[in-house]
Every structure is written in C-alpha cells, then in structure tokens.
Amino acid sequence: MNEGSLVIEMVEYGGWPNCIRVSNGEIELVATTDVGPRIIRLGFVNGQNLFNNYAETLGRTGDAEWHNYGGHRLWHAPEIFPRTYASDNEPVQHTMDGTTLVLRNHEGANALDKEMRVTVSPTSPCVEVAHRIVNRGSWACELAPWALSVMAPGGHAIYPQEEFRPHPEMLAPARPLVLWYFTDMTDPRWRWGRKYIQLRQDPKATTKQKVGFLNKQGWAAYLLGGDALIIHYPYDPGATYADMGCNTETYADSDMLEVETLGPLTRLEPGEGVDHVESWTLAKLECGPSEAEIDEKLLPILADCSL
After folding, report:
1. Distances from the Cα of 215 to the Cαs of 70, 150, 233, in angstroms?
2. Which of 103, 129, 186, 249 has the smallest count of CB within 10 Å of its CB?
3. Could you count the other beta carbons within 10 Å of the beta carbon of residue 17?
4. d(Cα 151, Cα 136) in Å, to the nearest integer?
C-alpha cells in the first residue's frame, strides 16, 4: 500500500508473521499486531534498530505472563505489581486512518483500552506517536499514560537540565529529581552536568539504575553509533505528575536503556480517556558526551518536527 510517498506493508519480523512496516524511504518502523501494541523496530532504512529486542521473546504469543519484547510500548503509572504488568501477548486491532497506523488492545485485567496512533512523515525523518488510555471499568481510576522506549545497547541518553541560575539570582528550586531505592549516583554510567544529565548504557553493568525528574524543556535524546533519536513531549505546568512529580524517567541495565515519558496523573471516570503525544526525530549524528559538543551538534537539530 502506498500513501503518497509512504510504503505501508505487512511483513514478518522476528517470528511474528503479521507485523506492519511503515517507511518514507528514509526511515522505517515496524509494529507488531500478533502482540502489543508495540513498535518493535525504528531506524533508518537498511540501518540499525534503535530499539532493543530480546531474542528469547521474539515471536512469542499467548503467554499468560508479561514479557519485555523491547521496542516502544504504552504503560500506565505509577508502577504497581501486578497492575502495571498486565499481559500484552494477544493480537491487537489495527487499522489505517489515512496515513496513520492505529493499534489498539483491551487490557482486560484493568478494564483499560490502550491505543497508539502512529504517523510517519512522508517527507522528513519524523514520527508522531499519540498514546491514549480509556477507562472501560465501572468505577473511576487514577493513572498517568507512560510511554517507554527500550533503546538498543551501547548508546547514551541526554536529558536537559534547567537553565543554570547563580545564587542569589534565583532562590526557588528548579524541579524535582527523584531517586529509586536502587539508584547509585556514584555509578560511572551517570554524568551529572551543569546543562545535561546523561546516562550511558553499559552491556557489562551488573546493577540497574533509574532516576526520574520533571523535564520542563520537553525533550530527550538517545545517541547510538552515529544515529540519534530525539523525543519531544509536552510539559503542563498546571498538571500533577506521578512518582513525586516526574514527566521523565530513565532506566538502564545490562541489556538496554529506557527513555520514559509520562503524561499527567489523571482521574478517569468510566468512559473517559487521557492522551500523551511524543514526536520523534531521527538524525545522523556523531556526538560525544561533552556539553560543549552537545551544544554544538545536538541543539541545532532540536527544532520541532513538522509532519
């Protein structure tokens, strides 16, 4: 199927026979329909997959327990077991709405509908992913839409700090920085800079790391082997965010690194929904961790992507 300069086709990927590939000739993504909703591959055509996949779970379907297939998924915060870990091992509904791929499933254990509306630009290396969760239960629930991108190993994530303001020019706090019980701020994978917080993925790591924060600037980036994924997402100054005020979280272990963004914490009455939109830009970029180099090479391509 061709929509303008987009190619949309059914393909086999990783043992799942019914995946959907969307490409504009420069970039491509692959979404699963046998499980999900998941975007299991993202990258330049004929290039590396920026998302991590797990060999032991590729092609699996129908299991009762939740699996981390990798890729990009939609969860709901705060993280609570077993609520958050509802299985997504069944086929998803999938339709095309113009040039937008719509993926839906029903999380029966929690009476929630989850939806991704995925739109690839026909002319630029950009993707919009609109996430939606609808309460189909009989009573109200409180949650935050939580979008998680499971990035391939070997790269590093970059998150902007708030603008540095010297004392006593600004006496008010800038934002929360939230630590988990297993966070080790002395771990060499962290780089705590004046302008950026960075987390490096290390396949030799033996511990897990996680930090959350309120990101008012609304972007994050992951750099891997000459490719970059830049994620833009909204910040609402009037909203309440989960996990002590986080709209951004990052996690790393020996397999991957997660770039996680969250929408506002929302009370949903039966039938009500909440939305959270990410805009992705892919770029060819060689950039080290020095803040001067990030300023020089990454900042010029941070302009919003126009689909």
Report:
1. 24, 19, 9
2. 186
3. 11
4. 31
Amino acid at 183: T
Q: Residue 247 above 60 pLDDT?
A: yes
Q: What's the rounded Cα separation, in Å, for the pair 116 and 70?
A: 16
Beta bridge partners of 9: 21
Q: Are 129 and 142 in contact (CB under 8 A)?
A: no
Are the CB atoms for 215 and 262 separated by under 8 Å?
Answer: no
- What distance in Å separates the CA atoms of residue 16 and residue 66, rounded to the nearest whole number? 17
Q: Say how many C-beta atoms besides its own lie within 10 A of residue 141's C-beta.
A: 18
Spell 202-236 as b/e; 16+ CB within 10 A means b: beebeeebbbbbbbeebbbbbbbeebbbbbbbebe
Domains of the chain: 2-301 (2.70.98.10)
Report the half-sphere exposure of 278 (CA within 13 A, side-chain side). Answer: 27
Report whether pLDDT(99) > 90: no
Q: What is the pTM of this model?
A: 0.96
Span 134-174, pLDDT tens digits: 999 999 999 999 999 999 999 999 999 999 999 999 999 99
Tell me the per-residue pLDDT of 263-280, one tens digit each, with 9 for 90 and over: 999 999 999 999 999 999
